[in-house]
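SAMPLE LOG
Freezer: B-3
Tube label: C17
Construct: single chain, 639 aa
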Amino acid sequence: MKRIILAIALLLFIVSNIKSQEWKEMRIYKNGCNIINTILDNDSIKFSESGSSRWLHYLQNGNEVTLDISEIDSITFATVTNTYSSYFPGANTADYPTVEIDYMGEKILCNYVDGLYIIDGDIIIKDDNIENNTDTQDNTILKAAAGWGFILWPEGKVYYDPVSAGNFPAVGIALKYLSDLTHLKFIPIHTFEAKVYIIGMKNYGIINFCSSDRLSGSQFGMRKGTQNLYLLPDEAHRDVLHEIGHAICLIHEHQRYNRDLDVIIDKDNLDSIYYEDWFSQYWMRFPTEDSYPSRIDFSSVMMYECTAGSINGKPTIWRRVGLSGKERYPKPPETKISVYDQYLINKVYPSNASPDVMIYAQKQPTANSCKLTAELIYEGNPKMTEYGICYKEKSGGSNILKPSTSPLSTGTAGKYGIYECELTNLKPSTEYEARAYIKQNGQPVLSDNVVSFKTEPDENPDWVLINGVKWATRNVGAQTPEGSGNYYQWNKGTTDFLLYNDYYNSNYWNSTTWLPANDPSPVGYRVPTLAEIQSLTNTTYVSYVWTTQYGVIGGKFTDRATGKSIFLPAAGFRDYSNGALILVSPLYGVVTGGSYWSSTRNDSNDYFAYYLDVYSGGAYWDSWYYKSFGFPVRPVKDY
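STRUCTURE (predicted):
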């Protein structure tokens, strides 16, 4: 006990001279072994005694800790100021330079390899291969000189890029193995929209598996944004598990703060360049170590082999036997994690997890409906029973759930995929807001993101929305939907007719598109593009019938979703050779149809342009008529 009191007296003097910005390390020894290593809050040490019992009181992370020190050998304290230097001593070469980097005022020594800043052999603290964005990288990176700062994956949901994972056969095996054995949920991110949602909206990370010819390495814990995990091209199954272990916040067993209870590092057999980087002892206790077993787990996937870093093939790590004895330990399993690895993962991460569902920004509103798209990224646990869109009027009102009937895919992480849902019976000229949802146990779970939209006016005398395009209700120059209107040669906005040679000697025919200056459409309208004509002939969304409307023969196009229609009369055409109006077939003696210009020319033969044909047999688009023909124009509203 005199030894303890003398040590305390000496250390109280040291403590009184510690500056407020410095760290204070305490080590407690019993039976010749270092049994406790910890970092204290400054100026927090107090002692008390009662009879033969003595206690040490100190603050750690703002919490008061009381420790019985009646039967210990000694206590030592030390001042720690930016002392962390886990790197390759003597390996400061062009391939493995030692560099000093500055994190928020802290100086850190580490290895720099292929754009990666590495400590402890395979833990990446910074990656120059990812865009240097301080909001997504440095502010969440571990602060090595002042303590390990890290982020657990939310609810055990580990997001990853499935395309990059597919480049490594061992990765798929490892992810399935860990999913089956632990509470971890490995969730593939299939779309760009989902990636933006997970990173931008949720502030989470997505693991990207990268190939490296020189090293394997992983960042510690989750990092916001794209998080590269580097693997050798033919990485073994155990090494993949090891690097994923770092990504989910598992540490090296042989470097734990209390490793001296069970481990002897044999420097005589160790290549000196590896000691600081592979074998140095963590000088503080990791927060996750509260869940670790009290002794070293020699079968852990995070435990190095006993000959790691050996210069002569002999053990560099021994299992301690008693106070001074030692023995070899078996090689850790190649294809599985240990019982304690599984225990730790399942203690840190919960078995259940909430779903991830998002709604896309694009929408297609009409006066009484709106088509929306959503994506189920992960269905969560328990399993879902329904998915769809939840919406309400923006000014107030109750939520309305509209289930979707779109089928979804099923993968190892449950159901996922993109689905559509059309909201109907909406009020015209009304603002709405909508979220994606799924149901679990009969209760809806809503997406974090929301979209807003406004329905169109109920009726508009000038245009009708057909398959996402606003078509005018009548031809240019017509007074009614059944009127033929004016006839125009391509890219010529006046009705005076040029014969074939005159037209192709003019400047109209060789334009790459129908120029706005020559567009005869009313203000706010224009000649439709080929793509817009194609949308009108898309039979999946638009139906077509040859009919008579108010005594006029023509084609009727109806939006299958809304029932809204437009009528295009069989207006014929003006012949390119003489300008004659052709309404009736000279062969059959009946009205045969009508042709309507698009603004798109035929790039393979610029004497022709694309048009829409309506006739008794159907509606189609083509481009084998000369531009010098005279066709009507059915304009579209210019958004």
